[in-house]
Design brief:
heterodimer; A: mainly alpha; 2 domains; B: mainly alpha; Formate dehydrogenase/DMSO reductase fold; Cytochrome Bc1 Complex, Chain D, domain 2; two-stranded antiparallel ribbon; 18 helices
Amino acid sequence: MDASALYALRDPLGIPAAPIIFLVLGVLTWALHIAAVHILLGASGLTLTGALNKNPHWRRLADAMIGTAKIALSVAIVLGVAPLLFVQVVYDPFWYTSNVLSAWWVIGFIVFLIIGSLALFIFYGLNHSMKSTAKTRCPGSLIAAIAFFLLVGFIMHVLSLQMLSPEKWMQWYAPNGIVDASGRTLHDYNFWRFGFFISLSVPVIGLWLIAYRRYLMGRDTEDAGYLAFIQSLSMKLIPVGGVISLALMAGWMFTLPANVAGFATGIWPASTAAILLLAVALPFALGKKLDQGFWGFVPFAFGAVALIVVAVMREMLRWTTLFGVHGYNALDYKLHMDWYSTLMFFLTFGVIGGGVLAYLLTVSWKAGQTKGMYTASPLVNRMGTIGISLLGIWILQYFVIGLWVAYGS
Amino acid sequence: MDLIGLYPTWYEPGIGSGYVVAIIATVHVLFSHTAVGAALLFTYLAYLGYRDDRPELIDFIKKYGMFLLVFSYILGSITGPGIWYSTTVGSPRGISALIHNFVWKWATEWVFFVIEVVGVYMMVYLVGKVDKATYLRIAITFGLASFATMLAIVGILSFMMEPGKASWAEKGGYLLAFYGDNTFAQLAIRSMFMLTITSVVGGIVVAGLKDPVFKTWLARRLAVLGIVTASIGMMLYPWYLSTLPAQAQIVMENRIPAFYNTAIISVLMATIAYFLFTLIKPRMMTAAVAGFATLAILILGLFPGETIRESARKPYVAGEYVYSNQVLAKDVPGMTIKSEIPTLEKVGFSHASVFWPETQREITPQNAIDVGRTLAITACSNCHSLSTTGIRPIARYFGGMTDVPRIQNYLIGALSTGNTMYMPKIPLKPKEAEALALYLASLADPTVVAKFVDEKTRAAEAEAVKAAPNKPVAVSMATPLHTGSKE
């Protein structure tokens, strides 16, 4: 399929702000989403291991991790909406085609994710307090949840890969010249690439455990044995998972299609490998410092940065394929600048989103660190009041401007 | 090159891609409306709970919130993007029109949604762990953010029916696309019904309360909330209808199954009767009764409602310029969009479509049946099943007719001119109309394909003889007869 056909598929509406903004937001929000996915998968895996173990430390960890997995699931779904939105803005020809060609699996994605989520909640509902009992009820529900999460991840992997092969689309849509509109086939996959993204769950949950341990240390009466157990476990997960991930990434790079094979030896895979290695090495380099101040949270924060680099590499591969090979330049999308909606989003995102979430997360953090009831300080209360006021102002402007446009203009 | 941006088509022969979208959308409406209504209810209950020092109210918030974590914030969060996914595969250019007009509005809604999800977890897990004033602030934040998600989405839903202001087509821009009569009418009616739905779903949680006095108190308040909001919602319905475009009003009068309206009115009356029952006999409220009422609202109220909304905007799916078969039907000068109808009239689907088999670009008697099928998939299957069963089965519209020229005449006279209510204008070149007619005839009688090829072959031979009487004829009866592919 040549570039003129790809450009014909673009939405003639154009876009309301510079395309680079959508590309950057897409990369950043995808990185956040995949971090939540890694925590979900990692925490689910640790829960399963702990749930099938009689060791009290493992059972306590399973207890904590099922709570983490439950929240990570919500966060992964919520954060996943953003990159899904932005990919449709500048890569609509590719995303829509890929989806339609495997339509049944796209619908299946929704169904499988619902089944997996319900299975996770069933396990949670049946095993509220694993630390106080040696018995685990229905571990099969957790195994099913993990299996369905991996399945939906695989579907998403296929959709992302199919969009990179416009030259094969007609062959998939009309094999032998006869249209097959059933959408029942997953046409392309690369287990190395899929394995790489999934395997990152292991080092990421290891980094998460270091932060979890540091968080527990904020409490006065924490069990030193449990803290040592977490320390030891995380320091095993990080290097082992890191090495596996890097090996899978190497496999992915070696199996890139011939028309982008040169990408494997470029700057982006090298940078990604380097920062992943640094993320793996950082906790060991910090050593005892992990117990001091906020240092215990630094490895996870650095891991998040590493995931952004992974996301950038993924985007650069897409760019190299679609622009370099197929002549589609996402940055020359027709621009219909819309200042109101653009500014309103960034104000909402930066001021309301930032302000309100800062308040909510501060309260959550402090409440978690406080034994008994947490009473907010005047400063925190003021943050809350400002947040509410900002929400009120946003709603007010919605009606003032909306009624003026609808009835007054 | 005269290309138009038609994507591949997903043809779902069972219930049709339209109903796949409608089912997911309906389920999502139940989850999401419950979420927004419950958030406002929680804010009010948290206020009462702390003002009057009634811990049982806070405990109820925790129980209902826990239920909502799965019901609305997991299932609702999945089915929300689920609508994107289903419309992506069922109507890619329809969803694209919404995405490209409203990307920032959706991104803004996402910000509120993130706050909402964090908020609901805090509402559930910080009961008794933070001071009263802080909990109340969280509740208000949660309620406002949740309501803002509805504000952000409602103009996008309105645009599916028509642009906020008619001047959008000339001037373009987000504000004129988003805000209009229908936006506010829809907002008002949805706000009422979301509180009604919240009252019904809340009954499932109330049913499980142990304290009979508190159960009675809360069941009665939910009943009053349900009766008041359902009644106001019904009163707002004529306003909402008056904001619909004229075309939609005609479609609603002529094309919507009569029982849909009856079902919606019946379920509203039944909902009010249900609330009157729980008002008088609150202790009779059980999880089974409330669950049954929820299902009734879902199946008899929301599904017909969503289906009517889907159907009434035909032949368009978005902004009164994207046809249900994905062709851009009108110029929108404000956004520099050109209608694709002239291109189709000039070169036809077979030369304008990006996703068209190369072997079918030139139409011959031998490939006509395949071209007809590709045309039917491309231009018809979004709304019609290509068989005698399924959604609006296309074969039944021709009453078993197998006369290819007559069907061809109908296609050119009624569809290519755009003179059929509810149907998009489908420009077809004569050979395309013939190919589509052949395909439609073959649905009633597959043997017409062989006859058609045979007749065309003989006609070609006769033509060749006429043109060069002394030259041997190359075309023979050995020409393979193409019987077409099976569905």
